[in-house]
């Protein structure tokens, strides 16, 4: 019955990587807490780099500096 | 003053259905808890089926099997 | 498969009222969008009035004025 | 280490305004709570006016009336 | 830089299990997406069974029936 | 109409500091985006250090090392 929300910046994760992430997180909840996978929901949000800030700066601005 | 967030998969809900959902949820908060509708916020997130997992699988993959 | 999160201030809602809210919101998702209730999750967060702000003020402070 | 999520309707906020918002909120957490900005994350969600309800109505419908 | 929120019902998960969950989810984000663990935040919410609904019923009510 | 959620670890923030945070964030939304403060909601979640992970470790464990 757990609900998991994963937020990452939108920087090219593939559908296959996201599917593996969903599968892996669900499995962890089964292995560690004995949760029922059938009602375990995992939602991934990909966030535009203009909308994600760290250290007071947008990721768009941080990527430009590198 | 309540805040409600509804997450559904992006599978064709119409603007009219979403408007009815917002209206219905707000009314429930008025009827059951006596909340003030004027400051009741309802936010709907429609999530891509690649980004929604249940049972360790993406909804994209589940829909393909049916 | 929807996931709903309802945030209200902690001001005396009873377990019975919360149960009715969960039941009502789930039913709306069935009626309006045809969702499967069995995998519909509703989570209620009751938030301390010191932790809820509206109009730039905490609800604790607003309640005191009334 | 704080995490901040800001939800606004999608009604024309510029990248520069969002960057100022991220910078301002991060600075508040430093100034008021002494938090470390380096691990402070701010995520902005811009929500379609069809998906945002207040007073039981979508913002799309409210804007039309004005 | 990812942010992960895990919501589970409050039914006896130990501090050690939660620590393993945080460690496991962080490692998945490193392994699958190459994310930097140093700025990866995982927040666990334990939710009262009165506040969690599935199938239109609270978990408190579901547990009683078993 | 914005909704802001601020998550911090539970490590002694006072009611007065939280009130200043609510006031400051609301003012930023007015100043930068011209939002209406009357319907701006700010919710603060204080999270137990056992439930907050960064770098794959709980904050409880990180604080012990210092």
UniProtKB/TrEMBL annotation, chains A, B, C, D, E, F:
It is an enzyme of class 5 (isomerase). InterPro entries: 4-OT, 4-OT-like_dom, Tautomerase/MIF_sf. Residues 2-60 form the 4-oxalocrotonate tautomerase-like domain. Keywords: Isomerase. One of its GO terms (molecular function) is isomerase activity. The active site is at 2 (proton acceptor). Its EC number is 5.3.2.-. It comes from the Bacteria. Belongs to the 4-oxalocrotonate tautomerase family. This is Tautomerase. It comes from Dendrosporobacter quercicolus. The lineage of its organism: Bacteria, Bacillati, Bacillota, Negativicutes, Selenomonadales.
């Amino acid at each position: 019955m757990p609900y998991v929300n994963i937020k990452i910046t939108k920087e090219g994760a593939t559908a296959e990587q996201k599917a593996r992430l969903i599968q892996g997180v669900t499995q962890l909840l089964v292995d560690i807490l004995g949760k029922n996978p059938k009602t375990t929901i995992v939602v991934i949000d990909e966030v535009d780099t203009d909308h994600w800030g760290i250290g007071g700066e947008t990721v768009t601005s941080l990527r430009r500096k590198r």
